[in-house]
Specification:
This protein is of the alpha/beta class and 504 residues long. It contains 15 helices and 17 strands. The protein has a ten-stranded mixed sheet. Helix 1 crosses helix 2, helix 3 packs across helix 4 and helix 9 packs parallel to helix 10. The structure holds adenosine-5'-triphosphate. InterPro entries: FtsK/SpoIIIE/SftA, FtsK_dom, P-loop_NTPase. It holds the Pfam family FtsK_SpoIIIE. This is FtsK/SpoIIIE domain-containing protein.
């Protein structure tokens, strides 16, 4: 639906006066009939509008009128009293089911109707109306963006979405700028705008916060899909699917922001691939293994010192170069297989290998290896997942080489754009406002997608991590395979093909 005039006439050129035209003696009868017809039309229209607006009141009036004309006021009255009593008892004795089955659906219906009905007025108030002069009549009319497909995307989480088509002369950016005011005007605690076309966008109003609760670990997918790894929940109540294939992921947040939960959820999402040998995880935990040790069995290689970490990064870079040379001219896209698994290089607190390492030589080697993987690793299936507390440039100069950035709780608002890129804070990424009582909450920004998305990673407690590592450790066969055997192994394994079919 396109924008349309809402008939708010702000200026009207003078009309030829009809008052002076001479009327014949019969004209007053015609005028009276026209006036009476207009009155009847107005009354019918108003009655229909009122009935549409207040259906319950209208229904009650109709029933009372019916009961009165049929002389049945007493039985109808008794039925009404019993009904009211049932509702009152239900409300106080079983408030949960009352809310779920009656109060909430009624509220949702009212809210949706109110927004649809008041849309032109809302647009006027938040500055989205445009004054347009009609060329033929010379009238100035107020045009507002069109609203269609207004529906509850998630009834449980109270997420309302609608498609908005801006008026010619406006851009989706104008709509995005007014998002906060529009959200407040509609009584939502947050409102987001996602561009879907040159003049169209999906507007999402959030009346509840699905991220207020801890997200329990999601079911582990039975087939590896590295292009959509389930990691948690998005603020619109939909699963948060993170791309791992052909990207690099940077996770930034202050201490206690919940970076660990993103890492464990990510590992949970690819656990089947790890178990089946389609994915290898090489992990570096510069904090002497304190963070990642519980999942040790999931890792093909595990470095717990800066020296070993740097060596691991260099080995990954060599593997990447060799694989890229083999793929050259035959394939442009890496498909995970047991011969050539997707290699995830996981670095917890990457600054320990770069900025905080006093040994200059080690630091240079780490930076060189990281830069090589970040710039060339995507095509040959070597993916970098790095976690970091301090987003300042001097700590990790390679930030811009990560196409997927996850910003968790940050200390200062200036750090938001530092992590997610210019304009992210303006587009609604308020990482500095994430509460310290909501670890795991983050804003995700993927290159090529304008708007950051608010998410919460699922929470793996110690027991869940231990269980994950126990049940999805790589088989002894794939674990015993030397790291560089991928270069020499002569034949493909029989079940490779079937596994590849399920991979990204
Ligand atoms: N997704 C989550 N949901 C609920 N609670 C969480 C979540 N993630 C983390 N927590 C809680 O927050 C605490 C800190 O989390 P975590 O250790 O992952 O933070 P971090 O960002 O990795 O911190 P550091 O950088 O100091 O290692 C955890 O012990 C846990 O209690």
């Amino acid at each position: 639906m396109g924008g349309r005039p809402q008939g708010v006439v702000t200026h009207q050129p003078s009309q030829p006066s009809t008052a002076q035209t001479t009327t014949g003696s019969d004209d007053w009868i015609a005028e009276l009939i026209v006036s009476l017809l207009s009155l009847v039309w107005w009354m019918v229209k108003t009655a229909v509008q009122l009935a549409w607006r207040f259906p319950l009141v209208a229904a009650v009036l109709v029933v009372v009128w019916w009961a009165y004309t049929r002389d049945r006021l007493l039985p109808v009255g008794i039925v009404v009293v019993v009904l009211v009593l049932v509702l009152v008892v239900w409300r106080f004795a079983w408030p949960v089911s009352f809310n779920r089955l009656l109060a909430q659906p009624a509220w949702r219906r009212r809210k949706r109707r109110a927004i649809r009905r008041n849309w032109p007025g809302l647009c006027e108030r938040v500055g989205l109306a445009m004054a347009v002069t009609d060329r033929r009549s010379g009238r100035r009319e107020s045009w507002t963006p069109g609203l269609s497909r207004l529906r509850w995307a998630s009834r449980e989480h109270l997420v309302l979405t609608g498609r908005v088509h801006v008026v010619a002369g406006q851009t989706v950016d104008d709509l995005a700028t007014a998002a906060e005011t529009l959200g407040a005007a509609c009584g939502a605690w947050s409102c987001r705008v996602r561009k879907t076309g040159p003049r169209t966008a999906v507007v999402t109003w959030l009346y509840g916060d699905p991220l207020a609760q801890v997200v329990t670990p999601l079911p582990i997918p039975q087939v590896l899909d590295a292009s959509a790894v389930p990691v948690g929940l998005r603020e619109d109540g939909q699963p948060w699917l993170l791309r791992l294939a052909a990207t690099h992921v940077l996770i930034v947040g202050v201490t206690g922001a919940g970076k660990g939960s993103v890492v464990w959820s990510l590992l949970g999402g690819i656990a089947v691939g790890i178990r089946d040998g389609l994915v290898q995880v090489w992990a570096v935990d510069g904090k002497a293994g304190m963070e990642l040790q519980p999942g040790r069995d999931l890792f093909t290689r595990f470095a717990t010192t800066v020296e070993d970490g740097v060596q691991l990064l260099e080995d990954a870079a060599v593997l990447m170069t060799e694989r890229a040379a083999r793929m050259a001219g035959t394939s442009r896209r890496h498909e995970p297989s047991t011969r050539e698994p997707l290699l995830v290089v996981l670095v917890d607190e990457v600054a320990l290998l770069t900025a905080y390492t006093p040994d200059r030589k080690l630091r240079d080697r780490a930076e060189k290896a990281l830069a090589a993987i970040a710039t060339q690793g995507r095509a040959p299936g070597v993916v970098l997942v790095a976690a970091l507390q301090d987003p300042r440039k001097e700590v990790l100069g390679l930030r811009n080489l990560f196409p997927t950035k996850i910003a968790m709780r940050l200390d200062e608002k200036s750090q938001v754009d530092m992590v997610l890129g210019e304009g992210a804070r303006e587009s609604g990424a308020l990482c500095h406002q994430i509460s310290d009582t909501a670890p795991g909450v983050a804003y995700v920004k993927v290159d090529g997608v304008r708007e950051p998305v608010r998410v919460r990673a699922a929470y793996y407690d110690d027991q869940a991590i231990t269980d994950l590592a126990r049940t999805h450790a790589p088989s002894t066969r794939s674990r015993s395979r030397p790291v560089f055997s991928v270069v020499d192994e002569p034949q493909s394994e029989p079940d490779d093909h079937a596994r590849q079919a399920g991979a990204a």
